[in-house]
Amino acid sequence: MIRVLLVCLVAAIPFAARAQQCAGNPDALGTSRILEADVRTTPRVGRKHFAATLPLRRKEVVLTFDDGPLPETTPRVLEALKHECVRATFFLVGRNAEANPGLARRILAEGHTVGHHTYSHQILNRVPIAIAEGEINRGIEEDDYAVYGQRRDTPATPFFRFPGFASTPYLLDMLNRRGIVVFGADVWASDWNEMDPPTELRLVMGRIEANGGGIVLFHDTRAQTVKALPAFLRELKRRGYQIVHVVPAGSRGILR
Which has the closest alpha carbon to 94: 115, 64, 123, 110? Predict the structure, then answer.
């Protein structure tokens, strides 16, 4: 119970108060605005996978990170984001949240959005429906227990991303009925492939420029991404891009 109260108090800190953390970096990229996502208006987003995406303006970017949290890499991602006063969305793997609950709580405490990415990262269109649903449900339960100290069927943050983007019509409909927004991406960093950080930076910036912004997919479990991230954030600022923080509908009032 104490854990839940502490997390709720952190979540209620006004946006302006948190922005003061950027005082040590006057050239920070920052977070330009908050955007609410709701299953009624944005049920499935990311044009790599779906017909629509979030209502972003040109040169607006939403940063997302998959597969964590891991103690070897996620803290360094968080430090890079904090240095630039940037907020992102982290899609947690349940078994990693279960193993690293303090790190899962830190993601929320530092102002980021916590979404869900199954329990063990199984590719859900390759397994029976009952197993797929179990992966989704257990992932949500373990994520929310790690962050809030409660296991529940309805996630605190109703955002989900399929491992490998491997959805099925049945699972998409099931998530929609439960009020859960499904995230794809508009731009891949392709950081599941081995490459050095400068190559990753050139690749992702080229794709962002070609797309004009959008939902960008990274992995906070990848050392090359950790190394590329500070330069990436500086490059976004240099080229005039702005960061949008996505939150569930109805939560914007406590995040300002």
Answer: 115
Active site residue 66: yes
Residue with tokens 């991230």: 229
Which entry of 49, 66, 116, 144 is annotated as an active-site residue? 66
Write down the architecture of domain 2-255 according to CATH: Alpha-Beta Barrel (3.20)
Q: Within a 13 Å sphere around the CA of 60, how many CA atoms are in the beta-carbon half?
A: 15
* Distance, CA of 146 to CA of 241 (rounded, Å): 33
Q: Of 118, 65, 106, 69, whose CA–CA distance to 88 is shortest?
A: 65
Q: What is the pLDDT of residues 176-205, one digit of tens each?
A: 999 999 999 999 999 999 999 999 999 999
Q: What is the pTM of this model?
A: 0.91
Cα–Cα nearest to 160, from 108, 207, 94, 216 = 94
Catalytic residue (choose from 49, 117, 219, 245): 219
Percentage of residues of the chain with pLDDT beyond 90: 86
